[in-house]
Amino acid sequence: MDSREREVFALLLSVWQAGRLYSPDHPQFLELVDRAYRLITEILREERELTLAAVGEDLVINEKIIIDQSQKFSFFFQGLKERGLERLTFYPGLEKEELTRFLAFICLPQKRTEQDIKNFLELERINHITAGRLKGLIEDREQPALDFASSFDQVLAFVALVARKLTWQEEISPLELKYLALSILENFSGTYWQGNHRWLSLKPEEKLWAHFVNTAILVTTFSARFGFPREDVIDLGVAALFHDIGEALFPGPALASGENHMVRGARILLKYRESLSPLPAIVALEHHLRYDLKGQPKLRGINEPHQASLIVSIADIYDKLVKKWAFDERFDPLFVYELMKAEKGRVFSPEWLEAFFQVMGIWPEGCEVFLSDGQKGRVVRPGKDDPLRPRVEVNLSEGRREMIDLSLERKISIVQTVNPFTRSKTQS
Fold this sequence. Notes:
Number of strands: 10
């Protein structure tokens, strides 16, 4: 396999990430398109065409399968398939403007059908690129849609890979990390509760990666719904994703005895402050500092923790308290809310804690609950003005469903939450 063909795919991955994070007129996007164009045209001087296809978990380049794909490609594959782009073919005569317009189009967040792609190519007079579903390129395979568990497992594997690189101080692409935070926001927003059903079945090291991802899901979902600018949401997501990197016990040069995990994590991430910004290191250092500065580590010369640290600390502790429900029946969502509210002004910023539960609700989306009128339902949306009174979908007879807004139906309330860890105990 020609190393240039592999490089083309890596460049297209980077273009995709830059296009999804920024805009088609952003210098980084344009610079990457230029590099991809030069390499594609170089290959097309020697080949009749250059075809890239996503088949299952494999990358196929000109009918040759590359099996050793990294986890980082999984979101790219998934994004291409959602847009009807299992196959991309470039032909001699390709112009740079054609490539730029096409790549800008497929980076748009909207899902596309194959007909949408064909219409776009025709309208834009792009004559040297074809794209669509797999048809006769190689023998078709069944490609079931990724469910939550499969998608979550892919994220865990990629986070473990990045964590190892960080602790070994290897080169990390900030574009990849920001794109990972964006993917978590777009693919897992509002799905935090689903992960609890399988948490007990995870291996010990996977539980650490799951905590990284769960914290990032909570932080990106909250900050996006609260109205933070997109760029800030992504930066917060990266910081949340690796706030506990100091607990990743990979042997390597980043480990030093006698350091707590906050200092160790900050020292690891400071190596990447120029490419990632100092924010992840600050959050790693301060996420246990507490609002009243009485936590760890002891720092001098500051009046309060960074606002990002205050937000991440809420999500960090919230996820850890929720997981206690797997072993202690007291820790249902209402109990966790009351525990955290009791520490307002000491452990937690009063403003951010109130905002967190106002936006996310006391019962997260997906919680199964019993209502005071005897019905069982599922929380689908936090209460608009009162976190104690969310919207609940209940199942009626003959498969019918009804939405009950508890902020309007004041005579009905939530009396019990179904423990998601009970199910996972049965399965494990």
